[in-house]
Design goal:
4 copies of one chain form a homotetramer.
Chain A: H1 13-28, H2 32-37, H3 44-56, H4 75-86, H5 91-94, H6 101-111, H7 114-125, E1 131-134, E2 151-155, E3 158-169, E4 176-182, E5 194-200, E6 206-211, E7 219-220, E8 223-236, E9 240-241, H8 247-283, E10 285-287, E11 290-291, H9 296-326, H10 332-357, H11 359-362, H12 368-374, H13 385-398
Parallel strand pairs in A: 1-4
Antiparallel strand pairs in A: 2-3, 3-8, 4-5, 5-9, 6-8, 7-8, 10-11
Helix pairs in contact in A: 1-4, 4-8, 4-9, 6-7, 6-8, 8-9, 8-10, 9-10, 10-12, 10-13
Chain lengths: ~400, ~400, ~400, ~400
């Protein structure tokens, strides 16, 4: 490791961060617990008002270039903002940079055709619609991406798609999905068999089977994970993104930054959980003179959480900086590293915060219960810890072979 | 540690265990996932059928003496049965030995007056009604039992009770509660201020405020935790259990065995989760020839889980045996030990089983999600880990002072 | 898991345990720290006196049958004694049941010829000589026992042995070694290629290259690990134990109980370290009124250690009992389980005890430093944790294949 | 957390780092294992040659200003160098920036009188002598610095010092010590009772009682920890550093950066241990085609170590930067954070590297055994983990009190 070059951050970034922080704390903190306790749809009018307010204040789309109606932040700058948004479970949604839409926007922006941009990208960027991304299949281990059963067969000018997907986040209420399907089963390399295709959700043959009950809750709309079915679902071949067989290449382009985005958001969650933990420790009285915070176990948790969150932030910022300088492909190792490291810090911080809250921490009267359930997936989605550790290790060990 | 005497187990215990196991596996396993996914009440008719069947087969009330209509098992023998029941989340309920009713039965059996037995204990033992236990208060740290705000003031022949309780498990649908309330605020020892009083839930002034949403779910009936209010709630002084000021003494009597019961049940959960984990590892294919179980991380989890579950079982059985020989008071250290030890094993085993299941482990399509949420409390209820560790340590260190 | 049958322990076992305990505490505790701080040889006269005293008191050879001059304890009974001996690093040595001699005695007792018994076993049993066991090779991964380079070629009536071994514990000062060497390289099964052969250490061609410096100390005599060389080392073919190709079978017979012996001893170490930790916590003052034990971190360590040691003991006793009932082969799973479980408990308990002692814990003024160094190997020797976990897991998963 | 300002690093730093790296790898790696296996003194001529070579190459004293004969690196720049030096256990010594001399140099440079500089500082800076620092006392808990028994009483123009210290690193062969002693026992604040005084080690009444055997080894010279005695040890009052009662203030000034220095060095150790681990994993064969590195457990350790070392480095660099910008006092929280965080990463990385090496990892044939023993103290010296966690937590919680 040598002294690495620095990227200069824009003037005014600290003030911009503070502006976001003020918005989030004054507008979102007062309602976010209610919103996630749901039903989500009943809050949509209120959330739409907040999205309008974000637009009016020029805070919408922090991730997009100015040309596209965004703030033109680079990835490192966005990392600072994203952490702030992550402190509220509705933060990214309000500012239109939530998964999976943010990933779909990036994909279409880089690889979409002109008409795809007009029909699908622009409405997303304006926040008029939502989309989803259909990759994982219930019958195939996600850790081996070559396992794909969904097929898209070109018949005339249309792809006919058949297959079943699940964990299609936000399918409920989305306007379209991007689906990963096998178009070239005979390709020599298994990595060149699949393609990505846009499917509007009102296409006949598309079916949202259910919002999968996840950790006790099926949710709805943006807060849902769909199990979906394609049955002879027919879309024009113009809906292909890029070229046939490019699916995995696009997935890699999409997933790398996607993992960084998760990590940024997780740090925001950690900070909010940490704040809840400290607050509780300082104010819960064991006896009239003795707050909970005098217990050394709790002091240990606070100190360890602080250390681990700081470590996480520095690693995520460093990774974002290096992506900025060297491109995502060159920092694959670092992306794997933060994916499993931060996911585990998140798990520990939430767990400790719950323990400090005692019985209250089990209830839905704090956000901790929401995150405890919704982020158990952090060590699984976009690659389980074990897959990232193995990938990182293999990459390191290559240098030792000769 | 010296060679400890053995307790002889009844002849026929292995066969009895097998009988319970067959019942649980053939009758409960096929429906328990649906039942806990709820709504619980819709399954009550079916569950009542099963309870009848348990009675017909002389399996009801394994914990009660034969005179009381039970099987007359001692605590050690019951431990073996309880583990089997714990493998299904409805096991203890079907056989009428579920918390908090089992604890209330013990309490009333030992300390209830004749009329309390007739009116409250016998219907419980017959499985005709359910009851609940109101101790924890939202505003007071449960780890210091002296913190109690609920009061019961004797006015004439009645106690007038005022206060708020929560985490009153199963309040929804229960016939009565036993409430812990301050009757003697002026007692010198803070441990002699409270009493236990029976309150039928149709008493005016009693109010079930809500089924507390816990980990995303408020549940109902037996699967619920109530927040309840006593507002000038008046009951005859005959509803006092034992004598005034005896509350803490009774609570100790009730909680010690209660903790062992939890541990027994947790081992059952561990075994079921372990079985799900192994099944998944053996049958989920990473590629046509390679099951998930060839991954060493998963082998590690299986081995570590096996070791920790075995350790838990042996400790719980040993504790049950020693309670049998020496009484619960004499084995306070061991009870604290298993409380935190087994709760942590439970946490780890469930977590690993989820990780092995990947995305499926997050859904409500397996029992893991239910336990992940419902048993996060295991490290909190009946005394958080930290309280038990401190108590155990203090007790050990006494021998080192001189 | 069903209710397991009990083995009856001999009358008088508690008293016998106490007799050993008194001996160990009164005779060994006062000198053991000095002895291990060495040089070991300078203490040999004193240790021999103690061994005589053990004989006089009929405490020598607790592991041997009465016919062989021992106490005739079964494995379960021995487990209780072995824990007591393990509390002193010289305990097993004084009573003549230390590794590797105990393993060699078992082997020769079961598989030795009459003349082998007279020449090698009987002097061992009388405590007149020491022996060693040469299996591990520096160039071959011990976790795969098929990797063996040492060869023994029959020429006329002699085996001619060539090869290099290391971690031959106690080679320095031993009278003979049992060596594992390939005699049948062409055997179909790799498990039938090696044999065990007795080599007196004064045989020409045998060389003790060095006492390997292990964790900063090469030690001497019984407290040493040899790197040894066989160069055309010639012994009569009568020195073969059992028949040719039986080496692995014998090794299995030898290693199974050997692992249980280690576990028993480790529990003794844990108890002594635990005692040191509690003593220090109770008596080290942070301020005139405040002992170290008021710190909750230390309370946590004491409680966790207590729980883990109890768990370890119960598992080891249960395993010993099952070996007694079913034979070592049938409880292979349990032996692997305790091997890694107890080794890890040992590591944690020693580490915590050191931390409680602060700087003093780093010095050689307590036994902790000795164990910290000498027992780092516990997770490695006789099979590293990872190998035992994999073996256990594979054995469990067999039941899930169909 | 807001976007923090950057410090510009000198041009040519990457090249300078590489120069140090080349020196360390080519000159120190080939001999350092032998040197630490000792006896240290026999290597002094060779080490002195290397120190000369370092001077000739203008690499001596990287921590000192150019005026003082150093390279004039700021703390952040030094952090990069220090990590490189830390990869060899003799790295800091060769370049004259080893503890405790580096701390004594800083102290005397900032607070020494002119004559103290001439007599004590300059010879240190030239590398002509070594010094030591006497603070810890065997009878007083180091975690409470107010516990000090050693006294220095002014009699005429001399301080007469009495007391016992231990863990006085490098006392054996040092020219002088700085001793912390109570000069003003009546001061109101316990933090104003002690002073720092220079004592040449040839002063009558000074006695090096022993090189304390630490983890099996008493060592000698630079690689030793002394237990020392002051018996009516008389030094001129000019040897007082600063003013009377300033002892704790000076200790704080000295310890803050000292802890950062340790962390930097530990990262170097981690990197070397990591390299040894990867090398072993890649080259140790389980079977002819299968290196150890194909085991997922080992992949996990490599990945986790990589993540934790990266996190450690980023935190240490960030702390060094902030000390540079805001001063050590303002970043007390961060210094406590890295002290316990990096010490624990160090412990884990060394332990994993040993496990990967198997039996070889236990021997003194690699550096791992040296670090395993010598760095067990990392979680104890300069404040045990628990003290730093408590301090950090208390500081954080202050913001929550109101």
């Amino acid at each position: 490791m040598h002294a690495s070059p620095n990227i200069s951050l824009r003037k005014g970034l600290p003030e911009l961060i503070q502006t976001y922080r003020d918005f989030v704390e004054s507008q979102l903190f007062p309602i976010d617990l209610q919103v996630v306790n749901g039903p989500f749809r009943s809050f949509l009018p209120q959330l739409n008002e907040l999205r309008k307010k974000a637009k009016l204040n020029n805070l919408f789309n922090p991730h997009l270039s100015e040309k596209e109606g965004g703030l033109g932040l680079n990835l490192l700058e966005f990392a600072y903002i994203s952490e702030v948004l992550g402190q509220s479970p509705i933060g990214h949604y309000i500012f239109n940079c939530h998964a999976p839409d943010i990933g779909n926007m990036e994909l279409l922006s880089h690889f979409g055709s002109d008409s795809q941009k007009v029909n699908f990208l622009h409405p997303l960027q304006k926040g008029e619609i939502r989309s989803c991304f259909a990759m994982t299949e219930p019958e195939n281990a996600g850790s081996n991406p070559v396992n794909l059963s969904t097929s898209a067969i070109l018949e005339g000018n249309d792809y006919v798609i058949n297959g079943r997907k699940w964990f299609t986040t936000g399918a409920d209420g989305a306007r379209f999905t991007i689906v990963m399907a096998v178009t070239n089963p005979e390709a020599t390399s298994p990595y060149e068999r699949a393609s990505m295709i846009i499917v509007p959700l009102d296409t006949p043959g598309f079916k949202l089977l259910r919002n999968i009950p996840v950790m006790g809750e099926s949710g709805e709309d943006y807060l849902s994970h769909g199990e979906i079915l394609f049955e002879n679902c027919q879309v024009p071949k113009e809906n292909l993104i890029g070229t046939e067989g490019m699916g995995f290449k696009l997935a890699q382009e999409r997933l790398g930054p996607g993992r960084i985005h998760h990590c940024m958001r997780w740090i925001g969650i950690c900070e909010r959980a940490f704040d809840l933990m400290c607050r509780r420790a300082a104010h819960r009285m064991l006896s009239p003179q003795k707050p909970l915070s005098e217990k050394q176990s709790i002091q240990n948790w606070i100190a360890e959480s602080r250390a681990e969150i700081n470590a996480s932030r520095l690693m995520v910022l460093d990774t974002a900086k290096n992506v900025q300088i060297h491109g995502a492909k060159a920092v694959k190792e670092e992306i794997s590293t933060i994916k499993f490291f931060v996911a585990n810090v998140l798990t520990k911080v939430i767990d400790r915060a719950i323990q400090v809250h005692g019985a209250l921490g089990l209830t839905d009267d704090t956000l901790l219960s929401f995150w405890y359930r919704h982020e158990r997936g952090a060590r699984i989605y976009d690659g389980p810890d074990e897959v990232h550790k193995a990938a990182l290790s293999r990459s390191i060990l290559k240098k030792y072979q000769s």
